[in-house]
Amino acid sequence: MRNLLTLTAFALATSASAQETQEYVTPASVVAAAQPEEWVAIKPDDLLIMELAPAEDGSGRYVVIQLMPPPFSQPWVENIRTLARAGWWDGLSIYRSVDNWVVQWGDVTEEKALPEGVVSPDSSYVKNGVHRMLHTEATPILSSDTFAPQTRYWQGWPIASGLQSLSAWPIHCYAHVGVARDLAPDTGTGSELYAVIGHAPRQLDRNIAVVGRVIEGMQFLSTLPRGTGEAGVYESREEDTPIVSVRLASDHPDGATFAYEYLDTASESFARYVHVLANRNDAFYTVPAGGVDICNVQVPVRLVEE
Q1: 8-33, pLDDT tens digit by residue?
Q2: pLDDT of res. 124
Q3: Which string of DSSP letters, residue by residue, matches the chain?
Q4: How far from 169 is each of 151, 165, 199, 209, 221, CA to CA, in Å?
């Protein structure tokens, strides 16, 4: 009887606890309650699928990258599409990993010829005359920012801007992908790419092209062994992580299985999501922060079920 009473008491306590927990509004509960029309499909041409060599246990490793939409970084993004369609990264590797910084992939030998159509962009990393676009289509982040007068989310992306939003630029957050380059005025082509695996290196904003972000498979990049050679490059090619292939989802034989959508950053649910992130008052938090860093607002992305 005692065991029965104990189990009954535990069940009642668990039920009461669950009911109490359900009363709190959390970022997850806001996302779960978002309406179907508030989700935006990501176009297959905007998804880059990088297949790495299998893990030691034989399991597959896929890294899915969403590419930056117009008007930002488009010369590099178009280069990346050209490189993917040519299969240029196939057989190359991830050859650099720096703790709290980046992992980088491409041609470590710098000898592989680029496919026809890849250009060396001379475009600015900053776009001017975008104030109307940002004011009508974006959700502002009201917290102060060290690196820009204003920050906001626009079409699913964190964007910084100058005063009155007369100029704007994409920023570096964790899991964001940028174009490696030599010293200025070189801007890189997009053949050498890196993903941020540490604290957001915002000092790179406006100095390097941000071209995308990893939306799935980030664990396969962030957990790689750190390179011990110069600038974090692996000292032997045996340490590299081989790249099997890189394809756009629109060209991938299994592209239909890589279908994603993101929570519209101009939607009411996203605005509420940001507010709750900045003002947590659920069971775990005792002191709401009262603000949130632009890079800590991770845009909800979900796989579209068949």
Answers
A1: 443 444 444 544 445 799 999 999 99
A2: 87
A3: -HHHHHHHHHHHHHHHHHHHHHTS--HHHHHHT--GGGEEEPPGGGEEEEEEPPPTTS--EEEEEEEPPTTSSHHHHHHHHHHHHTTTTTT-EEEEE-TTSEEEEE-TTS-SPPPTT-------SSEES-HHHHHHHEEEE-S--SS-SEEEEETTEEEEE-GGGSEEEE---TTEEEE---STT----SSSEEEE-SS--GGGTTTS-EEEEEEE-THHHHTSPPP-SGGGB-SSGGGSEEEEEEEETTTSTTGGG--EEEE-TTSHHHHHHHHHHHT--SSS-SS--S---GGG-PPPEEEPP-
A4: 10, 10, 19, 9, 25
Asked if 42 and 51 count as a contact pair (C-beta separation under 8 A), the reply is no
**Model pLDDT for residues 252-283, shown as the tens digit of each residue:** 999 889 999 999 999 999 999 999 999 999 98
| pLDDT tens by residue, 161-203 | 987 778 999 999 999 999 999 999 999 999 999 999 999 999 9
pLDDT given at position 22: 53
Radius of gyration of the chain from its Cα atoms, rounded to whole angstroms? 22
In this structure, what token pair is assigned to residue 140?
């502002």
C-alpha–C-alpha distance, residues 235 and 233, integer Å: 6
Backbone torsions φ then ψ of 303, nearest 5 degrees = -75, 135
Amino acid at the residue 21: T
DSSP strand pairing (61-67 vs 47-52): antiparallel
CA dist 190 and 176 (Å) reads 14
